[in-house]
Each structure stands twice: as structure tokens, then as C-alpha cells.
């Protein structure tokens, strides 16, 4: 068995990760991974939108760091990507970003459910107390569905991120998941198994086994990502992720090259 590619890794340019891309690549090689992809937090049109992403004029530096890792580790396939924040109204900006570099894929992620609240930010945990959990989950999945429908992304990131702090609605969310996955299936958008959830309060891979089983039934494809914010997190908990994917019926995952998808066994 070969490890699936780790398609979700960050760099210090986002201001909350440590280690250079070449160091992440070194860890990947040591683990026996054959393919990885950098997908750092994308810049917004407005610089300093928040304190956890690069500014637009740092994109070239980002690409250069990834190219340096490629030169240092020729035995490893290294993809160039971004984790792009989806907020309604940002579509034009995301299309501009897409044209600037030869990206292999874009991960579309929803962190914000309004212009000012990133639901996964520990600094904004107090916001959760001001809102009904179901309303937050519903808003989040509405934007996630729009992201899948936008045609801007190959992959949707950490599909049930609102569970990060272990705050769950007391109402059934099946219809929210259903609508999102229906759209992902129709638009051929993959979802990622993101192992960072295991390192958070929810102590569970994103997304849940229930969502993964629904995804399999609807024909939604998958990728794998550690969401590494330091080199030691590359490929973290991939054995669990592979086991979960297999238990949900998956035997193949996606690989992307210049935004073209192919399926590979894992
Ligand atoms: Zn991050
Ligand atoms: Zn994210």
C-alpha cells in the first residue's frame, strides 16, 4: 500500500505556521510519501483582512518557496495550491488569483460565516455563545454549498469545521449535509479527509463518518490532508484517515495536476 498524497500543508507566510516548505518536504520523504501539495491560506483582495494569511504581494515568494522544495527533493512530487477562503462576493478575486500562477488545485474552505467571524478562531470563541449552534451550522453549510457550486475549487476543505470546538446543534443536520454533497457530486468537487480535527476539541477527522458515508453514496471523491502548520504534522494520523476512508467504502482518491483530476488507488 502506498500513502495517499498530503494535499493540505501551510507555510510561515500565513503568520501562524512554522517551518519552510523544504522542511515539510523532508518530513514527507522520511515518512515515505511520494506526493504532497502546499495549500497555504490565500491572500484576500484586501491585505490584512485578518492576521492569519499572506498579503497579495507575497504570492510570488510563496511560489518560490514551493519551487525551492521541488529543487531540493526531486524524488517527491510537490503540488502548488492554495486554501482559498470562500465568502460570497469573493468570486471575482478568486478567479484573478487562479490566473496568476500555474496552480495544481484550489481547496475552497469556509472559515467565515460573516465578514467578521471566523468560526474556527479561538480568539472569537465568545461568538459561539451569542448564536444558536444550528443557525451557525446552517449558515456554514449554505456557504459551503455555494463554494462547491461556484466551480472555483477542486476540493472542499474540512467540510464540518463547525465541530472544531465540540459545539454541536441539537437539531438533525442531515439535510444540510445532503444539499452540500448533492452539489459537490454534481460539480465533481472532491472533499478532503482532514486529520487536523483529531488535534482539536472535537477529536475527530473532518468530516464525520456519517458525512463520508453519504459522500460515498453520492459519488463524491476524496483527498487527504494533514493541515500541517509545522513540518512534524505532515502525514499525521494518515493511517486512521485511510482506515476511515476504507470503512466508508473508498478505495481511490484524487490527484490534481494543473487543475486536472485523476483517480488513484490508495
Ligand atoms: Zn491555518
Ligand atoms: Zn482551513
Strand order of the largest sheet: 1-2-3-4-5-6
Ions and ligands:
zinc ion
Distance separating the two termini:
7 Å
* Low-confidence spans: none
Q: What would you call the structural class?
A: alpha/beta
Order of helical and strand elements: HEHEHEHHEHEHEHEE
Give the averaged pLDDT, no decimals. 97
Shape: globular
**Can you give the helix content as a percent range?**
25-40%
Number of helical segments with 4 or more residues: 8
Describe what is shown at a glance.
This protein has helices at residues 21-31, 59-72, 91-100, 125-130, 133-149, 174-186, 209-218, 238-247, and strands at 35-41, 77-85, 105-109, 155-156, 190-194, 222-225, 252-257, 260-265. With 266 residues, it is of the alpha/beta class.
Task: Outline the structure in words.
Strands 1-2-3-4-5-6 form a six-stranded parallel β-sheet. A two-stranded antiparallel sheet has the order 7-8. The longest helix is centred in the middle third of the chain and has 17 residues, at 133-149. It has helices spanning 21-31, 59-72, 91-100, 125-130, 133-149, 174-186, 209-218, 238-247; strands at 35-41, 77-85, 105-109, 155-156, 190-194, 222-225, 252-257, 260-265. By secondary structure, it is of the alpha/beta class. Bound molecules: zinc ion (2 copies). One zinc ion binds at residues 83, 109, 111, 157-158.
Amino acid at each position: 500500500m502506498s500513502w495517499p498524497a498530503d494535499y493540505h500543508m501551510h507555510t510561515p507566510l500565513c503568520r501562524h505556521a512554522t517551518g519552510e516548505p523544504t522542511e515539510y518536504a523532508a518530513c514527507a520523504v522520511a515518512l515515505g510519501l511520494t506526493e504532497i501539495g502546499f495549500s497555504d491560506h490565500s491572500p484576500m483582495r484586501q491585505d490584512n483582512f485578518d492576521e492569519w494569511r499572506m498579503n497579495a504581494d507575497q504570492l510570488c515568494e510563496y511560489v518560490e518557496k514551493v519551487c525551492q522544495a521541488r529543487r531540493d527533493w526531486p524524488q517527491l512530487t510537490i503540488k502548488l495550491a492554495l486554501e482559498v477562503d470562500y465568502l460570497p462576493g469573493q468570486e471575482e478575486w478568486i478567479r484573478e488569483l487562479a490566473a496568476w500562477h500555474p496552480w495544481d488545485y484550489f481547496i475552497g474552505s469556509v472559515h467565515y460565516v460573516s465578514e467578521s467571524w471566523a468560526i474556527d478562531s479561538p480568539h472569537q470563541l465568545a461568538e459561539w455563545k451569542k448564536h444558536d449552534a444550528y443557525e451557525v451550522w446552517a449558515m456554514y453549510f449554505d456557504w459551503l454549498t455555494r463554494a462547491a457550486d461556484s466551480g472555483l475549487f477542486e476540493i472542499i476543505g474540512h467540510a464540518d469545521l463547525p465541530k472544531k470546538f465540540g459545539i454541536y446543534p441539537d437539531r438533525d443536520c442531515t439535510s444540510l449535509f445532503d444539499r452540500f454533497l448533492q452539489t459537490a457530486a454534481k460539480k465533481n468537487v472532491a472533499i478532503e479527509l482532514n486529520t487536523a480535527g483529531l488535534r482539536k476539541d472535537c477529536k475527530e477527522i473532518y468530516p464525520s463518518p456519517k458525512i463520508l458515508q453519504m459522500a460515498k453514496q453520492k459519488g463524491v471523491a476524496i483527498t487527504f490532508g494533514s493541515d500541517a502548520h509545522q513540518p512534524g504534522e505532515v502525514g499525521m494520523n494518515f493511517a486512521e484517515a485511510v482506515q476511515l476512508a476504507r470503512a466508508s467504502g473508498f478505495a481511490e482518491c484524487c490527484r490534481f495536476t494543473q487543475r486536472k483530476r485523476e483517480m488513484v488507488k490508495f
